[in-house]
Each structure stands twice: as C-alpha cells, then as structure tokens.
DNA sequence: TATTGTTATACTCTATAACTATA
DNA sequence: TATAGTTATAGAGTATAACAATA
C-alpha cells in the first residue's frame, strides 16, 4: 500500500521542487505543514498579543491545569527546566500567571493564571481556531480537518513508548 | 461538528496535563506530534549520520532536483538566504554537494549532490521511513498513516494563498 | 531597479552544569 | 539519593543589514 506515485503534487508548495522521495517522510510533511500553522499563529496571536508559540501553550496549559507544577509542564512540552523557568518568568512579569510555593511540597511551585491571563488565553485560542479553520477551508473539509487533529494526537501519543523523545 | 468532548484522551502524552482547550488547535497538535518525529529522526539519522533535520531536507531536495538554485531551496523551506548559504557550506565541506556557477545566470549557483551525498540521502530516507512506520504502527493503521501524510501535504499547500508564511 | 548569493552581526531560543532547598 | 527550581554560561539556529555581482 501507499506505493510510490509520481504526480504533479509531489512538489514543494513554494519553490516548485520535486519532493517525491520526501513525500512519505512524516517529519518532512510535518515541517512543511508547520510553516502554515506558524504563519497563522504569528499573524493572529504572535504579533497582536506579543506571544511566542511556547508562551501561548504554557499559558493555556496553566489555565487548564490550575495548581500544576513547572516540572509537569516541562515534561508535557519536552523542554528543559531552565527553559520553563524563563517562560514562566516572562508570563509572570506580564501579570498573566502567578507562582506560589506549594504547601505540601515546599520545593514545588504552584502555578495559577491570573484573570488577565485567562482572558488572554481564551481570546488567543478563539482567534487561532477561527484562523486555522479559515486558512484550511479551501484545502480540507471539516471532516478532514477533524481527522487530521485526531491522527496528530495519536502520533503524539507514541511518545513515551520509545527510548528518546522527552 | 467536532463539538467539544471531555475524554481521558484530552491529556498531554507526557505530564498528564489537561489539554481540552488545545485539543483542536492544529499548531499545538503539530508541535506535540513533532516531538515524536524529531526523536525518530535524531535516533535514526541525526546521531548516526551527524545530520540536522534541515541538512537532511536540503540534501534530499538537491538530490531530487539536480541543477536547482539556492534561492529556490530557500523558498521551498521558508528559510532566509544566509541560512541556506550556511547549510550548503556545511554539506559542501563534507563533500555531499557541489556548487557550480550557472552558465545562463551567472549570479546563480547550480547545486548537485555528489555520489556520496546521494547514497547518504537514500540511506537516511530508508531509515526514517522504516523507523516512522515502526514507531507509529501501534497507534496508526497503515491506512491512517497514509491519510495523515496526505492531509499534512494539503495543509502545506495552504501556503502562498496567504499573506504570510514564507 | 530587482535578484542571487555572501559576509558580518546581533538576537532568540535551547542545552548543560552547578547550585539551593527540600524530600 | 533524588527531585524542584534557579542561575550562569555556552552553544545552536535564525534574522537583519550591508555588500558584490549580475540581470
């Protein structure tokens, strides 16, 4: 199945380069698709709210998981502890999240989003969802869009059963 | 369609954080899935061949498009010209590609992969395809895997009809 | 005047190591 | 002994600006 086929669509979206050999490489197609989603994010959230993708994700995960720790965030996003410290520093200095020392484990920092942080995360998510739907409407049906999200989620779940991968 | 549902799968693969609000954000699911494909790449190609993902992609696109220019590569990958210069420098210093001045347009550099470069690209692609298939086999059927690749390709094609995006 | 490619430079993001304070 | 978090530092990668050569 999925035997090699050479069609006019075996070409890069920009630059018109033949990519027949890369067509079935998941990492490559992911990188190409990420160019689009990154552009949508930068336009709809990054620039207007001055938020990097990581900042948005960290903020939203804190909104969804009040009382969580930085260590769990670091594991969820496969980034290092010093990295998380920096991003939380920025979000905290902007008044979007708060750090509190945990009562049960005094090493741990308990994270909460402020009202402003919650509002910003909600607004950002709404903008992204709308913009992504609009950007892909010409190429993907609503059903395809939903399937894509599910399949990506399944791929993400392959983490952990492997040696590497955060 | 795709109405919000709260299920046990609305959680990050690692760290077990609730991600219900992020579930439908394509950029987020892409980033999570990329953690897996990046790990596969690093293990199967990055470390053994000392190749970054960009280097592999640049090399493979040159193999597939002999005689192409750096400008087209930059457009295809949505990276800047100085960036491409650097990556080609590295590939050339390792004897994997050659630069020649174009006869028709003497500003342009014509790119060719060496025999060694061609062999390396082929070997790397084979390893990635095998490793990706194996890594995802437990989570995606062969059909789902193929559909995912097609849908990602369609997303990538949304580039260009937009303002931003390289 | 626009395009190809290079150099120089600065910036962002990330990773590692060393440290503290708890457990 | 291991974990949570911070700091300091170095590295990788990217972007911008300025330049040369050509179209």
TrEMBL record, chains A, B:
Please name the Gene3D superfamilies in this protein's record: Winged helix-like DNA-binding domain superfamily/Winged helix DNA-binding domain
**Gene Ontology molecular function terms on file:** DNA-binding transcription factor activity
What does the record list as GO biological process?
response to stress
Domain HTH marR-type, chain residue ranges per copy: 23-157
Q: Mind telling me which InterPro entries this protein's record contains? A: HTH_MarR-typ, MarR/SlyA-like, WH-like_DNA-bd_sf, WH_DNA-bd_sf
Give any Pfam family that matches.
MarR
Q: What is this protein called?
A: MarR family transcriptional regulator
Q: Lineage, please? A: Bacteria, Pseudomonadati, Pseudomonadota, Betaproteobacteria, Burkholderiales
């Amino acid at each position: 199945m999925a035997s090699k086929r050479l069609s006019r669509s075996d070409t890069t979206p920009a630059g018109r380069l033949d990519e027949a050999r890369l067509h079935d490489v998941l990492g490559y197609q992911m990188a190409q698709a990420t160019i689009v989603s990154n552009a949508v994010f930068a336009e709809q959230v990054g620039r207007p709210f001055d938020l990097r993708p990581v900042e948005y994700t960290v903020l939203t995960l804190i909104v969804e998981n009040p009382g969580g720790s930085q260590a769990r965030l670091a594991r969820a996003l496969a980034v290092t502890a010093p990295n998380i410290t920096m991003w939380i520093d920025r979000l905290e200095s902007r008044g979007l999240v708060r750090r509190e020392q945990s009562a049960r484990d005094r090493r741990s920092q308990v994270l909460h989003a402020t009202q402003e942080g919650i509002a910003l995360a909600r607004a950002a998510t709404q903008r992204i969802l709308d913009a992504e739907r609009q950007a892909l409407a010409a190429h993907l049906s609503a059903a395809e869009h939903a399937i894509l999200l599910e399949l990506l989620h399944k791929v993400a779940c392959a983490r952990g059963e492997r040696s590497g991968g955060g």
